[in-house]
Structures are given as structure tokens and as C-alpha cells.
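Below: protein 1.
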Amino acid sequence: MIQTQDLPVVPLPDKVENGKSAFEALKGLGFDDAITSIANGIVQFSFRLLICILVFYIGKFIIRKIYTLVQGIMINRKIDASLSTFVLSLIKIVLYFILIVTIVGILGIETSSFLALFASAGVAIGMALSGTLQNFAGGVLILLLKPYKVGDYIEAQGFAGTVKEIQIFHTLINTPDNKAIIIPNGGLSTGSINNYSFESYRRVDWSVGLSYGDDYPAAKAAILEILESDPRIVKRYIEDDIARRKEIADHDKAAAPAVVAEDVKESWWQRMKRRKKERKDALKEKIKEQTTFKEGLPVKKECPPFVALSQLADSSIVITVRAWVAASEYWGVYFDMNERFYKELPEKGFSFPFPQLDVHLADVPENLRIK
């Protein structure tokens, strides 16, 4: 039996750069000393490998717990699915990268050169994929700032449609004729976007042409009567229309068959979130009231139907008609009113003119007439 404590042991270096250094470390040793040093190195490496395995599984467990915790918070806060997926993926990648660097350091490999290699590779990849990284940065800004969300109808980069997906590098929209348009996020984050779904109410405009000689005051009264008869159009205040719709919804809900719901106890997190939202809404309302009072602005903005004579065209008088409706009912009201104007205005004695051209025939001498 070899007693290692009596032999001169030259351990292997902790950080071996190449095989030459290991050979130099063993050079000049006897057979027993070399075997002992190699055995000690193997034991030391095995111990480090065992620690790395334990660190890997412990770190994997911690990463999974952090991932689950962040995912639960995002679900409770009802954060957009696209943003949640991106943030969770980024968290997982960053945490696993830190775990791998830690394991490499435990094994004895120089982590500074390892990180420098990754940094150099990142610079090279960034230069090669500069446009892609711009789209990536644009996707991050869109997901964080939310100029639009899934389901909004937007117009950008010469295309208009409903947002179907918001990816990291591009946004997918569907046009009204069901074409799928993929727009890079780089241009969307730096360009102009017309979000038709951002506001809950929109103004509808019409141009009605009537013949010269028609009674304009009577035509104005007839158009206002048509607009007032449609319940979807705001009669005076948008706030009153919102309250009216809420009353109708509450009445329909009360008239619906009662559904027995389970008594779900509110968690402390949900209770805290609800109270925070109530305080935030109350503060926002108070700030709005103070600003309105300070600047002398009206509490409610009047948005009644508007009718005015806008043009005296070549063949007709052009009447501009405007009305405010809920954004979800914009196109329905627009097409319905076009149909009603075309049907009801002639019934009230008004006519829609055709383009007219007066032709005057002069007397032509007999010898110049075509026979």
C-alpha cells in the first residue's frame, strides 16, 4: 500500500491551459509520484464535476421557480400574451446563461476569456444582423409601450388591417379582404401609426349633394331627423351615451337567467391589486376634475349631430353631415345612413342631381351644314 503522505506530491494546476503545462507539471516526477498526482487530479476534477452537477440541478430548480413566479404575476396582472412570452423567454435565457458561466467557473476554466469570446461573437452577429436587431428593438418597444395591441385596427407602412399577432421581429395584420401582411417592427416603432381602435368613440362624416333649388333649411331638418332617429348616434354628450349603454347592459344582465357562481375567496394578491386599481382610478378622476376646474373647461364635451352647407359645386349643393358613434359601430352606421339618405330624402321632396352641361347651338349657314 502506498502512503501518499510520505511522498512528494505535486498537484496539477487548477487552471490548465493546454496539454503542455500538464506534461511539464509531471516532468521529473517518479512513477509513483506521477500516479499519485494524476489520481489527486482525477479526484479533484470528479469533486468539481459533482459540485457542477449539483449546482446545475439546484440552479435549474431555482430558474423554474423564478419562471413560474414571474409567469403567475403576469397572468394575475393580465399582461399581454405577446409581452409575457417575450419576457419569460428572456428571463429563462439570461438565467441559464448565468448558470452555465457559473458551472464553467467551478470547473476551473477561465471565465473571462469565455465571456470575451461570447462578446466578440455577439459583436460579429450584431454587425451581420443589424436590421434584424433593429426589428428586435422595435418589437421590445412595441410590447412595452403598447401603441397597439392584438385586435386593434391600425394603418401603418401603407397597409391597414386588424392586428393578429405581435412577434419579436414583426407584426402580422389581416386586411379587410383577409390578406396576411407581415410588417417589420423596426419601421413600426419609428414610423407613424394610425390606431383606429385606440379611442372608444369616432366621428362619422358624410357628404350629401342636393340639386340647386332645393330648400336647404328643410333638407337640414330632414337629415337631423334621420340622425336623431338612430339610437346608435350620440345625441349630445358621449358620457351620457356611455351611461345609457351601461344601463342597457345592466338591465339585460339582470333580466338574464341567474347563474349560480362558486364562492371564490379573493387572494391577498388579488385584493391588493384591486385596492391599488381603485386608488389609481380615484386619483386619476380627481386630477381630471382639478384640471378641468382650473382651466375652465367644460366637464362634458358636446358632440351632437352636425349638418352644414359646405360647398356650392358645379351641379349641386354639398351638405356636410357629421355624427359621433361608438367605434365598434362605425361602419354599420356609415352604410346604414347612406342607405337612408338615398331612400328617405327623395321621399321628402329632395333630389340628387346628375352632372349637367349646357350646350348652345348657333345658327349655321346653309352652305356649311352637313347633308
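Below: protein 2.
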Amino acid sequence: MSATHATAKILRTELKVGLEIHIELATRSKMFTRAPNPAHPDFYDCAPNSLVDPVVMALPGSLPVMNLIAVEMSMQVGMALGCEIASFSKWDRKNYFYPDLPKAYQISQYDLPLCINGSVEIPVSAGGSRSIGIIRAHLEEDTGKLSHELPGGVAYAGSLVDLNRAGTPLLEVVTAPDFDCADDVVTFGQELRNICRFLGVTGGIMQRGHMRFEPNVNVLLTLEDGSVVKTPIVEIKNLNSFKAVKGAIEFETKRQVEEWRATGRVMGKGMKITRGWDDLKGQTFVQREKEDAHDYRYFPDPDLVPVVVDDAWRARVRATLPELPMARRARYREQFRLSEVDARVLTDDADFCAFYESCVAATTAKGCFKAITDAGYATGKMLLNAGSKRANERNCMVQELGIDANQVADVLALREDGTVGPQAADLLFGFLCDTKDNAATVAEQQGLVQVRDESALEAWCDQAIAANPQPAADVRAGKVAAIGRLVGAVMKLSAGKAEAQSVNDMLRKRLS
């Protein structure tokens, strides 16, 4: 039998991937208690076991109370993903024993989740877009953490339990198995992270565990006789980087084909297993056989009332939704004539996008551009060029450089009216990252104001012609492209103070 599998001719392989994404919500308190939430920036990196109370520790007599803000954040995410918000959902106990789960059960939602039946469009690697189905998004509480070494990396003959994370509000988004390549899974993950950041429901910092991805992967094999074989589904647990998501799916795709050839195992009841991901080795490894739902012995939590959502509550939550990243990108392309690449960079970070919008508003208010289209385009280009260059140098985000929206608008205004040239505008942007002084004042202080003295311009042009006889001769001979070298020489002599078009005109005049 196995020999048959080993020699079988596979005509086609089709990857099938569904995703489970766990999103830690950044409420100030935990899901069912007022204990501080480590997913909130104010409480990140607190000492182990310092964010606990009787409810977290499951002490006798302690009772859970639902966090309303966490429910509304979940509704926002569901609405952004096109989900229906259920009129009635309830809390269930998911029973299993693990050292970092003090109650020996997790409060979750089983058969009646808060958000159901959604879909979201994503751009795909093959071109165009694809609709990804959202089966459900349900609320639950996170578990604690286990550590197998002491602080400082010292090996420990046992496991240490930190319950800080236990009880953190956790939204689990479950997609349909609509992915057929790892790149599209990564794209969806990035889109979902951006959506959640724009909504302000999570910091979305993968390294802190704010979002954890768990792909469910199997492969459909079409054999020479026309039959289709489905390999068992493998769930890859707790991936916290997009590099890991891509690598794990691609490795697992190849491994499953090889395993089928060796064993002939196909999808069926009890065949699902979970695997982990070894970043250093670049491969998955077996963790455990996957339980089915009945193994968890779900039943309604008797300590919590159901969540009943009426139309008025839905409307209030929907009114809080901002313009989401995909819609913003489409608007930037249409309204500001920005490229898809530029629009995507501007919307990849919610804070950067907000800074860009404020700069566009300030630039428009200056009246230095005839239309908002030009203001949006010029502002975007300045932030993506001059801003990104300084941000890379300083290892920070553009909005953290120190320059404010009015200063950005002033630089653009000075460039548009010819007070400073393009190169000087770039330098001026850099200087303004370190001062709150007026842009015009800084331009004067740093000698960036363009020289309009025709005699000075003539002198620079004559020096450039004398120092570059061959390009000068080429221009005289009709080779117009050679003038670029002379323009560059003049700009160097003038330390960027000359205006490029005036230089070009003067050189043509001197060489004609």
C-alpha cells in the first residue's frame, strides 16, 4: 500500500488554508475582571504575576463580570470585516486542564458567537482581488504563560507560571479555507492588523503577542486516475510574525505531500494534529493530536448573562468606525493621484496615516496649491521621501521625528513659491525635525534661501562651463541632454541656493 503511495503520479496539488487569528484587545482591564490588562500599553512589561486578582486566580467565591468595552471593540472588528452582529450570543466554558489556566476551563463562545458570516476583499499575488470568508469572530479570555527558564536565561528544572496574561480579552477571528498560497495569507494578516490598528482595538505588535496566527493547512492531491486525495489538516500554533506564517505554510505544504507518500494517511475523524514552528530550523514539529469540539465538554457559563445586541447599540458602534485602510488607499489613489505603493505605505500604520492627513489639511489651508489633489500628492511625496529618509536614520516613525504638520506645510509653501529649491527643501525638512522654529527663519539661518541675483547666477554658470569643457561643447553641438551635468555643477557651486530652472535657462543663454 505504502509503496503505491510512494510511486503514485500526482498531476496537481492544491493548497487549502484557513486561518484562526487571536487578537489581544487593548482594554485597560481584563475580560471578566478589573485587573489591569497587559495588552494595554500602560501595563506592558509588568513584573510576573503582578496583574492578578481573585478572579484571575480562580479563588473560591470569585465571580466574572463582562467587560463592555471589549464587546464593543469586537463588534467594531466584526463590522469592519463585513460580519453580522448577532442579536443574541452567550458565554461557554471550554474545559481543559493546563498549568497556566487556573480555573481548568476557559470562558469562550461556542455555538453562538458575537460576529458571524463576514467577508473581506484583499489584493492577491496573482493580480486583482479575492474575497475571504469570515466564518466567525468570538470573544474569549487568554491563558497565562509558561516559562522553562529563570530570568536571565538560566535553565530551570521545571516550569514557571506567569498569570499576567490570564484573562486578557481575546478576539478569535476564524476564516473560511479560502487561501491557496502563503503570500495571500500574509496579505490578509497584514490587512487585518491594519484594520485593527485603525480601529484602535489593539497595538498589533506581533512580538508582544498582540496578534497570533494559526493556519490550518492541508493539500488536495489530484492523482493520475482522476481521484482526489486530501491530506489530514494540520494546525500550526502561535505564529507571531508574517515571516513565520509564510515559512510555516510553505514548509507544511511540502511535508504533507511527503508524509502521504510515506504513510498514505488522509483526512478523517481524529486525524487532525497541531504542530509548532521552529524559526531557526525553518520547519514545523509535532505538538499533539488535535481535540475535537466534544472533547472540551462545552456548556453555557452559569455565572454570565448572554449578550443581547439591539439595533440602537449596533448603530452607536457603527458610528464609531473610521475610514478603513483599503478605503483610504482607494481614495488616495483617486483623489491625490498617488501610486498603489505610496498609498499602501501611507496606510500601513494608523499613526503615520493620521499624521499624513493632518499635514494635507495644513498644506491645503496654506493655499500654496490650487487643488487639494496637488496638496495631497506633494505632502505624500515629501513624507515618503524626506520623512522616511530621516526616520530610517533615526530608527523611528516619521510622525515621531519632531516636525509637525504646520512645519511640513511651510516647507512645501516655501518650495512652491521658489523661496527654496527641492534640494534645500529636503535639507530644511531635516533641520525642522530638531526645532520648533518657523520654517522661513530656519531657511534663512541655514542659508537655504534661493539666490535670485542674476549676476551671481551668471558667475556660477561661467565657472561651471569653464570647469566642464566637454559637456559645454556637447550642448553647443546640439546635445541638449549634456546640460544636466552643467546644471549639477552650478547647483554644487551654489550649495543648492540656485533655482534649477533658472540655472538651465542661464546655461542655454550662455552657450547659445
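The chain has a mean pLDDT of 91.
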